[in-house]
Amino acid sequence: MDALLADLESQLPKVWGRQIYSIFIGGGTPSLFPGVEIERLLSGVRALLPLSPSVEITIEANPGAADVESFSEYRRAGVNRLSIGVQSFNDQQLKLIGRVHSGDEALSAVKMARQVGFENINIDLMFGLPEQTQRQALADLLQGIELGVEHLSWYQLTLEPNTHFGHTPPHTLPQDEEVWQMQQEGKKILSGAGLKQYEVSAYCRDSIECHHNLNYWHFGDYLGVGAGAHGKITDVATSTIERTTRSRSPERYLAEIEQQQSVHSESVEDEDVILEFMLNQLRLKDPFTQQQFEERSGRSWSVVEDKIKQASIDGLLEVEPESAEDIGSRGVRVKVSVHGENFLNDLLSLFS
Q1: Cα separation of 138 and 127, whole Å?
Q2: pLDDT per residue over 138-186, tens digit each?
Q3: What domains sit in the chain, N to C, each tagged with a CATH number?
């Protein structure tokens, strides 16, 4: 905790005069921290940076490391959003993906969160799991909806490099066609239950979107604090974007902070800025404008204009003039089409 606060303090010169709108305590199982330490962390953040009165403060929780006392302490510390890594309510699937909690523990975690007063709860659910049938995937989804959570992240299992599944992929994954059917039927169920899709994998009730993730998808800035943390800071004066990283090894991270070594950083090249902007923004259901692209990327519209036109011709994007009602209106509005949503990788390849 000393290292985390020292890490944050060392990065303050990058963000003088800026306000914090969201704090996300994640990356592993932060719910293993006792509540008193989370309170100390948030008190330290408040002492160093101005927080928005409506700041969203999220902590990730593993159902296998959840208890009423800790959840209650997080609430008292100022945490107002809980994200629970359920993944599945099916014990067989949980075992196959190496999770240590059970379906009953996942249900209990959500109920405990409600018991202590959390009014903004997200659960993560995956589909396309080993040996999973469409019926099982949709049963998970219906169970999650029945809990009445405000936010639901529903996404396909991805075999990431440098993970156990990445090295030794399971041979029992559902076929692509079956996964496609899971996704399409799931979308219908979520829509029918009043959960609005606002991003590829994110659904919410009553417009309770995740502000922190929206900042990523809108190509906003953020500070990365902790072992393995990444950050992104824009220098408006020079139109440059800096990516920061910290050592993934906790031991090395602690040593670097103690020795006051600078954060590892590098400038993002022009072509990478464009791809990263599109990689994030095109996940959203809402459109973006020409002005937003230029302001957030620091690049002229001319560098993407031809590619936007080509994507529109291919039916991957919908492009229309901005309306007179748009504040600061100029140029066009761009939105991913239904076809583009289904072939998002093809769309993004145009900007790589």
Answers
A1: 9
A2: 999 999 999 999 999 999 988 666 666 656 666 688 999 999 999 999 9
A3: 19-216 (3.80.30.20), 221-270 (no CATH), 283-349 (1.10.10.10)
